[in-house]
Amino acid sequence: MKVYSFLVSLVISLTFLGLLAMGATSASAIQAPITTHKPSVELPNAAKFFPKDASFTIHWMPDNENGEEFNYLTHSSKAIKGIDQARRLMSGLFALTGLDFDAELAGWIGSNVSLAFFETNEIDKPLDWIIALSSINKDGAKDFLHRYWGKEALAGVNVEVENYRGIGIIGSNAILGEDISPQKATTLINNNLLLIASNKRILKKSLDLSQKYELNQLGDKRLKESMLSIESGNALITISQHGLNSLFSMPIKFSQRTDFNGFTGSVKFNKSNITLDGIFQSKTQLKGIEAEQEESLSLLQGTSGPAEAVIIIKSSSELLRENNQEPLHQLVRPLIRKELQKVKGLTPKAITSLNKGPLIWIQEPAGWVLGTQKDKPTFEVIDEFLKQQGENPSELMINKKTFKVWSKLVPKNNQNNYTLETELGAILSEDSDNNWWAETLEAMQQREETGAEVLQAQLKDIIINNKQFPEIALLLNSNQAENYLNKWDPWLLLQTVSDSSLKSNIQGLALTINPDENQTGIALRTSLDIS
Questions:
Q1: What three-state secondary structure class fits 200?
Q2: With left for phi above 0 and alpha for psi between -120 and 50, is residue 12 left, alpha or beta?
Q3: Which of 46, 121, 210, 243 would be a feasible disulfide site paired with 247, CB 3.0-4.6 Å?
Q4: Pairing status of strand 521-530 against strand 506-515
């Protein structure tokens, strides 16, 4: 089962779009001098140029106590290979906006960089965007503008200077045949903050917003309230409610709710992992959920063997109940249903739908294993379900341990010669507190082997940090994370713009989704381990 694909998509989207935007050194295994012990994330002054309803924004705010700037990537003598990867990543990213990082930016931009993306109603039109760059010296941004627009003019571009609200805007229109295509626009604020936008319209709108405190991010009370619920980090990201579906493909019923404000998250880059702590902020108080910590931990303690993925759901039957309109369930339910449809056979679907308590799904190399509490669902309910599917019950004794097995004979056609084969419906192993259902005998045996100690430790750490057992907890090993990423377009784009293979850096991923402790939103916490 791959219920985790949506969850991975969510966390990797949020984390690596931040990496794409900022060229984070951790993604290339650079041990950059970034201090992780910081006060809470604060909005930079550039946020006043960003609308509070922007589809997607990133504010990159590394710690400046040690004086590090982006030119660290070009001048440090440490981790040369990693630095080269990061420079290629930065170069590839800025090339997407038509800028040359090494030649035009690396020598003068400071650590505070902000980006915003805006959707349009026009089909197939690229997103509009604006970038705010700080300067480490008084002439860096000014010299860049002279060089950049001078080069554009020499290339035959019509460069236009306009005074707007007392501020000079430089823009262009590139003549392409009979069409006139709008190009970038720039303005310099107080000689140290450079705004670069996809066109003049976006830039003018940002300047207007800077004078309307209640409409920009710096004056957004709800954004500041949501920031109080997340931990400190090196970058702050926001996603509008509409952008949750249009840009990140989250379920439409959740993204269209009027009682949510979108997503706010903090990304922190450490030497061995990248963490994301975020919240889907609710406008109303969420319904409290009764904790089942002891029962869930009991299932987790029964997890061993060479597990590739571990998922714990607090109450799968409640999560999958179609008329359940709780926002967290609307967020996750469509994706779990979609993934359940891909699983062979009806047994895992039945167990997941009928389970009244915590459920753990373990993906062993030989197949899935499901763990439930002893009577949730009862043995009799699943036994009757399997019999209705034509499965015949029997018992199997191995090493003085009894397994219950359901199977049936099925015909196999081999060039019109039919043979009978045994098809296994499910296998059950019972202990004092829990039932363990498996796809194959080998998977059941793998669960009782060793090999998942690291996974267990990682998952326990992220669960403990939630202060209550989460609605959903997920862990992927390095192979599962790499297999997924290699089929995921944003990850392929990341490798493309960095001109290198990054997959060997991924060691695993842990994630939890849960109502936050004050029931004011849905908390998302992740840890992406890197080498």
A1: helix
A2: alpha
A3: 243
A4: antiparallel
